[in-house]
Amino acid sequence: MHSYQSFVELNPIVKSAQHILVFTGAGVSAESGIATFRDALTGLWANNDPEQLATPEGFLDDPARVWGWYQWRRQQLAGCLPNAAHRAITKLPAQGRQVTVVTQNVDDLHERAGSREVVHLHGSLLATRCFDCAALAQVPVSAVPLAGEAISPPACEHCGGMLRPGVVWFGEMLPQDAWSAALAAAERCDLVLVVGTSGLVYPAAQIPQLAWESGATVVHVNTEPVPVAAEREFSLVGPAGQVLPALLESEESMGSE
To answer: Which of 31, 69, 98, 185 stands 20 to 30 A from 159 (CA)?
Structure first.
């Protein structure tokens, strides 16, 4: 197992990379104050199984409960800001390098921080589409109390069906365009930064593995040590908001020598 405590040791790898894939998970958003999936079950939602709020069956069983929870999550997102990890990632395209951000998160914090090429594997909390005809729709965030309340979803203006959040629920396929873009980036990149994710959610977790099999170096950034047993795979332990800026600062210092 390789474990790098010194950012300077990883510096040559980061500095020489020409195509960096940044693969992010809930740990990055949590540092901005966005509750993780299970943490979000408070107030009205505390007695619900998370899967009741994130499956097509749960939506059909109680559309108002599910829609109300996602409206609350949208309101929560509106009050959060990108953190130091999001901002550090925006510095990576320096020196003409290509950077692709592939995220399992459904928020827009990467975009708000300034990242331009962001692939959302699990959809977007800010997107809305019809449950029946899949037509896209624009729905403002309602003034939902943080304690939460059930709110009936609006009707689709095209077919009259119920609108649903534009996220990927349990049992649903990942968006094909996003999945294809993530696979292409994994096959072409020479460095992967796996940030704030345990790598247990499939099929998304296949992305770092595919990149490694294609010859890329994989660097894990997590608050807990990530076991690594292969060459070209390393672990940095600590909050992403501290680790990523420090890693980039060491790169900038070396570049100025």
So the answer is: 69
